[in-house]
Every structure is written in C-alpha cells, then in structure tokens.
Write a structure and sequence with these properties.
This protein is α+β, with helices and mostly antiparallel strands and about 650 residues long. It contains 23 helices and 27 strands. Helices cover about 30% and strands about 20% of the residues. The strands form seven sheets. Strands 2, 3, 4, 5, 10, 21, 22, 23, 24, 25 and 26 form an eleven-stranded mixed beta sheet that branches. Strands 13-18-20-19 form a four-stranded antiparallel beta sheet. It has a four-stranded antiparallel beta sheet with strand order 15-14-17-16.
Amino acid sequence: MGKADNHNRLTVDRRRLLQGLGAAGAISIAGCLGGNETDDIAFPLDVQLEVDADNTDRHELTQLIGQVMEETGYFSVDIETHSFDDHIGRVLDPGYADRGNIPFVRLSGTFNPESFCDALHGTSNQGQCCNVNGLGYEELDRMIEHARFGLDVAEDPDLRRERYDEIWHELADYRGSSLVHFATDEYVRNTDVHGFAPFPFSETTLSYALHAPVDQQVTWIDRGEVTPDETDLSDIQTGGTLRYGVAANIASLDPPYSTDTTAMMAQNLIFEQLVTSDTEGNVYPWLAKRYEVLETQDITREAYEDYMITVSANDNGVLEYDSDDPVQTIMVHPDDSRTADDDVRALTPDGASKAVDDDVFGMQWRYHLQEGVEFHDGEELTAENVVLSVERYENSDLAAQTFDSLLHARAVDEYTVDLYAQIPDAEAERELPGAYIHSTEQAQLGPDGIDPLGDGVEPVGTGPYIYDEFEDEEYFIATKNDNYWLEQQGLDALEWYDGPTDFPAGPVVDEIDLHIITEDSTRSAALQKDEIDATYNLVSDTLNEYDSDEEYVVDSIGSGGYNYFQYPVQIEPWDDPRLRKAVNHLVPRQQIVDEILDGWGEPAWTMVPELAKGLGTADYDALESDIRPQNEFDTERAVELIEEVIADHGYESNI
C-alpha cells in the first residue's frame, strides 16, 4: 500500500465508540476520540512519555527510549511518572486520546491470538483497556473478525493461522503501538512456601498455585527446617497462612467492573467459572461437569436483520435507545455504521432471545452443571445463576469482550444451560464461558454493586476461599471455605481427572493475606524481613540476588504479557505512520533486555508471543524473520523517515 493510502486510512471518526455499550454506558467517553488541530508543529517535536513510577524496570526502559529519541535531535522528550493507580486512571480517562501523549503500559493476553491484536487495536475497544489512544480502522477490524469468526476458520486451524499472519504484518505496517519486550513473570518466595508454581498469566497464578487439579498443582506452608527442594506431594501439610505481596491496590472486587491484574487475583480466590485451563491452554470443565457443542450453523451477522431494531446514533456515535435503563448492543448490522449513519439497526438481548427461539444462531454449546455446588451464602448453583451472571455483564466494563461472540444464555433445566455464539467462533470454547458465576442476589446488583468498602456488599462466589477483610491500599484477607464443593464431592466430580487418588480436592492453606505494597523496593524489603512469604514483579537486579540466595526460590515463566507504548495516532504529526515507524526504530530492544532486565525477558520482534503461536501463526520463525527488520534498532533509518515526514508536510525544522 502506498504512502498516501497508508496515511489516509488512519482516520477514525469520532463517532466510533465501544461496540458493546448503549447510550447510558458510553456517554462518558463521548467527544474524546478526535484529534487536536495543530497549527504550529515544529521539530524538535515536544513529546511526553507517561509511565507508572512503581515499576522501576519499565521506568528505566522508558528513560532509555526517551534518551535515544532526544539524541537524534528531532525530539524534546519529557517523561511524566505517576503511581500505578494514578497512571492507569490517567490513560483510561475519557479525554486521554486528545492529549497526544505516549503511554507505556503492559498488556496481558490469553492463549488466544485474538487477545494480542483486538484489545490494543480493535476500534470496539477504543477508550478502554487497552486501546487508550484511538487505534484501529475498519479494515483492520474486518481482518481480526475474519481470523476468529466464521465456519471456515472454526473448522480449519491452518486457515486461521494464515489470517493471523496477515494481521501481524498489517500491524507492523500500521505501527499504532511499539512492543518493547515479551515479559517473563518472576515470583520470589521464601523456603517456607512449598509446591508453588506459576501460571502464564499473573492474575491467575495465585489461585492456580494454591490448587489446580489440571496439573496436580498445590501449594502448602511448612515453616520448619525442610526446604522446597527436599519435599514433594507426599509431604503436604495443611493449614497455615500465605502472606503474598501484591504490587497494586485492589481496585474492585466486582468481576464485570474491573480489568486490573490485582483485582482479578483477589477475585479468582472467591469466584469461579464454568471451565478452567492448564498451563498449556487446554480447557477443562469445572463448575460445568461436562460440555459439548450441540450445533454449528454457517450463518453471518446479516441473519439477525429481522430481529434488529432501528436506533438513532447521536453525534458522538452513541446509540440512543428508547429506555431509561442501559441497553446492551449485541451487534450492529454489518451494512450500518455508527460512524456514518444517523440510524443503525441493532440487535439487543431481547432480539437475540427471539432469534434463538427461531433457531437463528451460530453455535450452541451445552453445559451440564455440577450438582450440589453451594455459594458462600448457602445458595445452590443452578443454570439460572449462569444466565443471571451473563446478563450482569451487559453494559459492564467487560461488555465489549463478552458480547463480541456471545449471543444469548438460556437455562434448559435446573442444571443445564446453553450458551449461544452469534456466528461460528474458533475461540468459543474458551471465550463463551468467560463470566464469573454470581449468586442470585449479587447477580442482580447494579454497576460496581459488589463493594465491601462503599456499600458494604461482600463478594459471594463458589470458590475455595471466602472474603474476610479488606483495608483499602493496605491488605486483603480471604479464609478457607470449609464447605467447598469439590472437597465435599471429591475429585471424582471431575470426570476428566486422572491424577493421584490422594491429591487434595481443594487448597490446603487456610488463609491468604494479600499485602498491598506498591513500591518494588518496599515489597522486597518486606520479603527479607519475613513480613511476607512471596511476591512478584521485583526489579531485575534484585531477582539475580534472590536467585543466588539459598533462603529464597525464584520461579520464572514465559507469560502472555508484553510491555509496549502506544502512539497518539489521531494527533498530528503522529497520524503519519512514518513518524511512528521512525520512533519504533529507536527502541533498543536487545539492550533493554540485556542491561535493564538482566535477561529476564525476551525482545518483542512480533505482536504475538510464543504462548499463542500455536494458533496465531503458520510459521513463527518465518514471521519473526519477516517482521524483525521493521523492529531493529536503526537510528539512521529513523532519521530518514522523520525527514520524509518533515519535508512532505512542510513542518518547521530547527535541527
């Protein structure tokens, strides 16, 4: 594609807002996605980089990139630091896309390759994590959709891989963001913690390490003289307290209304889902005893036309329903556009239900629930809890991710529930049952309704731990659920389990204390003072010290996360991809991994980490070979591109 086309396609209309939200849910971000008119653009260009100060490694790599940018003579760089909570609050502020700043952030994906392109570049995610600067365009949306949805890719993994390879090349050409390095997650524990093993995603590691029959994983506390390298599952001790240092405050205990890692870490102790996963991404039934696909139909989204209603789109692209309550938009007709049309045809939950009545759906998945599972308040889990929980995700902070595939949830009988996909979805097995299951009472709460600090509503789930106490910005405590369903029923309740018969049916640690310590150095000091037993996210040079100390164990795992920064693509002169490509060549990725991270990480040459390469690329080595030259450190090429931008646009240059 030529330069002119490449430049023109970047325009994203202000009216493109979150696909999953109705008027009440999206009005807060109205007017935030447009670019500023800039009359006096001159080089050296003033640039503000923003980073959380709590992560010293990320702060240092930001400083290094800023230094390299300044050394070219074409940029005057200011680095602004904030605490983690303040940083996230800033970048998720409705007006952030107007500021023209460059945020440094970390993204944590899933085993699905889609999570490494859509969350950051899909226009349906504009204004929320992680698309804070208005990245994306309709053709890219179409490519992402076609790599995941449709009978062809659902039935042909090779075709799916080929389409994702097209996406990775397109993203390299678009250059809306620059990956710096793929993260490895390191967890440091004292020798009182035995059996601990990490999961590829930090938000799931604690709950996984405590108890995961999928991998016969369990953690226990032994404060005697024996060390972890001297024990195995035959030495398990029950009881005790695990003191775990976390790197950020717990923003919310309400699953549909939180996306940060620490919040999910706490929630995973309390809430459960229909399915679970092992460290390789294989999916297993959990609250569901078993599940199967009943039917797949080769339909497209046009099939829902008769079930849609016509809705006005206001000047900000928000759909205006004739209702006092928020209405979830399941989908907009493919031929309509919020960005161009005054009226669009939209499918609501009511229309989706009627479509299912008429056997109009893409996939029908049936989940047979475990019987006798009790919530912490004594209520028994039924299919109705699943339906109500899905409905609570409507218009929530996770609505866009939930209803990109899910069409409808319907109870078949007391212990059987069907989840319907809109069209055939290659990622349905993992994505459809993604809701955390709520009790009947809590499923009917409003936004942020589960709030022990504000409204006094304590979270109630089916999980192995029960909420005990939470002091904002200080600590969170959860205690063992003595009536945990799996321990009551035994491992025979898991039809797939084929591990040791004496493996425990639940966690063996009695209490989990999360100590909220945002500064890396303070958290490290707490570990050394025996105030906590384990933590994560420490700076790299500290990790080396712990790794050589017999009093501690360092567990490292390749994760599904990467550190990146995002360009303000709608702000001139950043709307020219050549400028973005120039800065991308100023990122010394290998130096950052070698010198700042001390080898704890991998340079990011592509958009897809090895964790998701199985379904995300036809040939990972070939993909890296093709794209790596566009990500190599090359100051000469960067200067050439910058000078092209200055000359073509007539910008003032004082270099």
